[in-house]
Design goal:
262 residues; alpha/beta; Rossmann fold; 2 domains; seven-stranded parallel β-sheet; 8 helices; 7 strands; SDR; NAD(P)-bd_dom_sf
Length: 262
Amino acid sequence: MDLGIRGRKAIVNGGSAGMGRSAVLSLAREGVECFVSARTEDRLVKACEEIAAETGSKVHPICADHSTEAGRAKILAACPEPDILVGTCSPPPMTPDYRAISDADWREAIDISLLSPIAFMRAVVDGMAQRGWGRVVNIATVAAKYPGEIRALSGSTRAALANYCVAVSKVVAKHNVIINNLLPGMHHSAFVEKQFTERAAAKGITYAEEVAEFSREWRIAAERFGDCDDVGDMVAVFCSQQANYITGQSLVIDGGATTSVF
């Protein structure tokens, strides 16, 4: 299916690995010119070169920390009038004890996963509205809708982000600016693989065994973790022309780990 976004320009923050990289890949396959930010330059450049070679689309690396004012200015200078804004970031560590979360942990989580995406939306959404077309997709976390102690840092800040996105979506929908959120559960990202490899080593078991054990413990109906490309493809769908009547939504992608009728 042609998603109707060929020739559009997208900013993808946190796009060098994991779900962000998958979002860049899916958009580039649709002919979108992508401006990709991340903090680790070598990994970022490598990812952009690989995606450009595979898709034939233009993919521009921007080494910057999008949680800082200077980083945001650098990204927006490279693409001041994006048609598409996709936001994600490396999630904070799991928090098995909420009492151990420090003030510094809270400030970092708020800066990168709440204030940064809000600042980007404030910078680009009005321009999208004036041009009569725009898409914003924030890749958040299932913990924004279904809180859990181990995701207290990421869930709480992204729940606030989802609330803000829905509020703004009501204002700009009449200008064909569509704002939605994706709420992924457990996926085989570099972050997850690192954490679960360490967990497995501490128990003397394999990564696959640790994933299976976690899937049983958390009652993931699919009995496995997802692939990041599954999330990336949904980003492209939410950015498509066909998504023009879907706004202010937060789609859970968790393999059936959570239970809700709506």
